[in-house]
């Protein structure tokens, strides 16, 4: 299936700063900082790092008065560094107080994330929610109504459980939870519209940490409304777990045309590399043929036929070479992100796979002639030999890029 036959679900277009979400616009990659927002230098630095990695929107926590007062200074720092990325404020528990008291600081945010599960209890709930929506209306800001099953509206859950328990055949708890997640999002969105915000200022997310349940919830809510949808598996975990679980959760939904913006919630690794979540989000979209961000390198896993680890080194080297060259290539060679490269370990699949790529190299396997044929646009172009294959291949690659993509 190619991106051309994914039928995107119809949704309203929401303008977040200079970025459009929904309405058939390209699916937006977003991320979130893990710094203390009131630390202006560290937060700005991390936003710049995330933006450089390709994040198109960044969310920061706004948990106290120091955090909200830091926002104008963070914005100023970003603009001085030439970064105009939209910043979203993540509000929980005290959002109504902060937005009411620090309206001018809040005006520097591009969107407010509101969690209906923790805006307050009983009669305070609607009042606090109204305060936040009214501020959004006054400042002309969009909101994300972001439900998370870890902080679900307990009153709504208790009500639904009560109704469920009275049924002849009560549903299992997970099913009730899913229904409450959906109801909480839709009821809050409806209330927000009644308060005065327009539909094209509302984005919805329903985050859960179980892959099957998340898919189920988004499939259901996508049919019940046309609000723009933010996708993400919450608390996905770290490393391989986070990557695999997020990919398995988002992939089926995106292929079904569901989702207008995505975030991959990875626990930051011990090296503090926060931008990995952006890399994974981009790779998910690219793997599905939805958006290309980097030239795609197909490489085989290698096996007993691979004569040395030279092939792994070449595949790794080409990958790194692309990543480091991309900032310049993107500027000088528009469209280069659509390039398909293949690096293969032997003659079994090497020539065939290389022919499917724009440019491919097939290295010699064990017992094969020590030569590496290079294929360009499906045709064998040249055969490389000797110790300098990597550099020669890089030169051929650059020559191809210049010829095909130079402005
Ligand atoms: S292309 Fe050759 S080296 Fe690579 S996995 Fe297949 S058989 Fe092994």
Description:
The protein has 407 residues and is of the alpha/beta class. It has 2 domains: 3-287, TIM Barrel (Alpha-Beta Barrel), CATH 3.20.20.20; 296-405, Sulfite Reductase Hemoprotein, domain 1, CATH 3.30.413. 45% of the residues lie in helices and 17% in strands. It is built from 13 helices and 15 strands. The strands form 3 sheets. The protein has an 8-stranded parallel β-barrel, surrounded by 6 helices. It binds iron/sulfur cluster (SF4).
CATH class of the largest domain: Alpha Beta
Rg of Cα set: 24 Å
* Intertermini distance: 30 Å
Question: How many distinct helices?
Answer: 13
Give me the secondary-structure topology:
Layout: E1 14-16, E2 19-21, E3 28-32, H1 40-53, E4 57-61, H2 65-80, E5 87-91, H3 95-101, H4 103-106, E6 111-114, H5 122-139, E7 143-148, H6 154-165, H7 173-195, E8 202-207, H8 211-224, E9 228-231, H9 239-255, E10 261-262, H10 276-287, E11 296-299, H11 310-332, E12 340-344, H12 350-356, E13 359-362, E14 371-376, E15 379-385, H13 389-405
Parallel strand pairs: 3-4, 3-10, 4-5, 5-6, 6-7, 7-8, 8-9, 9-10, 11-12, 12-13
Antiparallel strand pairs: 1-2, 13-14, 14-15
Helix pairs in contact: 1-2, 3-5, 6-7, 7-8, 8-9, 9-10
The protein binds iron/sulfur cluster.
Quick take:
With 407 residues, the protein is an alpha/beta fold. The chain is built from 13 helices and 15 strands. The protein has two domains: 3-287, Alpha-Beta Barrel (TIM Barrel); 296-405, Sulfite Reductase Hemoprotein, domain 1 (2-Layer Sandwich).
């Amino acid at each position: 299936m190619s991106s051309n036959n994914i039928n995107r679900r119809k949704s309203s277009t929401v303008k977040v700063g200079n970025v459009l979400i929904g309405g058939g616009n390209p699916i937006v990659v977003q991320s979130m900082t893990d710094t203390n927002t009131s630390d202006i230098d560290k937060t700005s630095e991390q936003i710049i790092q995330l933006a450089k990695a390709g994040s198109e929107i960044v969310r920061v926590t706004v948990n106290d008065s120091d955090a909200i007062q830091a926002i104008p200074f963070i914005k100023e720092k970003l603009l001085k560094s030439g970064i105009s990325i939209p910043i979203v404020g993540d509000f929980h528990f005290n959002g109504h107080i902060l937005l009411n008291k620090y309206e001018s600081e809040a005006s520097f945010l591009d969107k407010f994330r509101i969690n209906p599960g923790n805006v307050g209890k009983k009669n305070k709930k609607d009042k606090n929610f109204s305060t936040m929506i009214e501020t959004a209306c006054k400042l002309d800001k969009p909101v994300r109504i972001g439900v998370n099953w870890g902080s679900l509206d307990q009153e709504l859950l208790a009500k639904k459980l009560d109704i469920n328990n009275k049924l002849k055949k009560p549903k299992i708890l997970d099913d009730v939870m899913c229904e409450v997640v959906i109801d909480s999002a839709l009821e809050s969105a409806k209330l927000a519209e009644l308060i005065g915000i327009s539909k094209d200022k509302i984005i919805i997310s329903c985050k859960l940490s179980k892959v099957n349940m998340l898919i189920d919830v988004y499939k259901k809510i996508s049919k019940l409304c046309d609000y723009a949808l933010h996708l993400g598996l919450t608390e996905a975990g770290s490393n391989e777990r986070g990557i695999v679980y997020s990919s398995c959760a988002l992939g089926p939904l995106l292929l079904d045309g569901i989702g207008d913006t995505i975030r991959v919630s990875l626990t930051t690794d011990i090296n503090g590399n926060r931008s990995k979540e952006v890399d994974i989000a981009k790779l998910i979209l690219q793997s599905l043929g939805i958006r290309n961000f980097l030239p795609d390198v197909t490489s085989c896993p290698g096996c007993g036929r691979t004569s040395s680890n030279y092939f792994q080194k070449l595949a790794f080297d080409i990958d790194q070479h692309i990543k480091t060259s991309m900032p310049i290539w993107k500027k000088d060679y528009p469209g280069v992100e659509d390039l398909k490269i293949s690096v293969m370990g032997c003659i079994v699949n090497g020539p065939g796979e290389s022919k499917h790529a724009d440019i491919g190299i097939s290295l010699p396997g064990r017992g094969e002639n020590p030569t590496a044929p290079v294929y360009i646009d499906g045709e064998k172009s040249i055969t490389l030999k000797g110790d300098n294959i990597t550099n020669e291949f890089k030169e051929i690659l650059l020559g191809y890029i210049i010829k095909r993509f130079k402005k």
